[in-house]
């Protein structure tokens, strides 16, 4: 009997029994528990309990003298029945439709399964909804986000190959994942970077690979600090995301459109130049490109080179389309 089969059978036995089941009874029912010393069997059972707890199935021990044993705590394990009317299901389906339409959304199959259990079908939504948060980083992110999300749930350290803007090669980073979020069409991965010794943010589109630590899969590698607040990180300006080392950016902007960036960049000088410090140059590059011919990134030089490269690609694409 493999472990998954044993776990399923164990849940079935404990959940269908009308009284708590002792470990000695489980030893009689399961061949996997019958071999070895009492201590070895208990350790195996405790590992199975921990694995079930990890996936949300809670086992309790009842020490009653007459009938001591284990049972499944249904209140702690299962959610209460959810009453949904037709409007509720339609609203869920419409919201889910927007998520399923995003190629970077990593949990399509799980979402469709959950909707099916609730009797809400995303394909039958009453209307279509579009989330105007900008272009997604693409379907490639979906697989990476799923890997990172699994590592986050299990509290396992991840080795990522990350390529900074303007860098020739990706570098390996060991990161303890603290959170993931989607903002303006881009996925971000936040965690303790062992290379810098600080909490850093990584744009998933710049991660070439992510490999979770596979040693001791049932044991967390770290604990998320109590003072870490993902929500405040999400609300902060992208200029201050800890993606790169601090750099001073200088951007010349036409006066007619300066109001679009003054809130983040501050007021310009007499020459129309905004000077500010950022730890996320990719965001500045995106903002400059969005302003088109109305803005020019003057510094730093490596970010200016990224803008130049992006504009050259646009020109080349238009020339090819015109032929």
General description of the model:
With 323 residues, this protein is α+β, with helices and mostly antiparallel strands. The protein folds into four domains: 3-77, Arc Repressor Mutant, subunit A, CATH 1.10.10; 86-124, no CATH class; 140-236, Roll (SH3 type barrels), CATH 2.30.30; 247-322, no CATH class. It is 39% helix and 20% strand. It has eleven helices and ten strands. It has helices spanning 3-16, 23-29, 38-54, 74-77, 86-101, 108-118, 140-154, 230-235, 262-265, 281-291, 301-322, and strands at 59-62, 69-72, 158-162, 171-183, 186-193, 198-203, 207-212, 247-253, 273-278, 295-299. A five-stranded antiparallel beta sheet has the order 6-5-4-3-7, with helices on one face. Strands 9-8-10 form a three-stranded antiparallel beta sheet, with helices on one face.
Features:
5-stranded antiparallel β-sheet; 323 residues; alpha+beta; SH3 type barrels; elongated; single chain; Arc Repressor Mutant, subunit A; 4 domains; 11 helices; 3-stranded antiparallel β-sheet
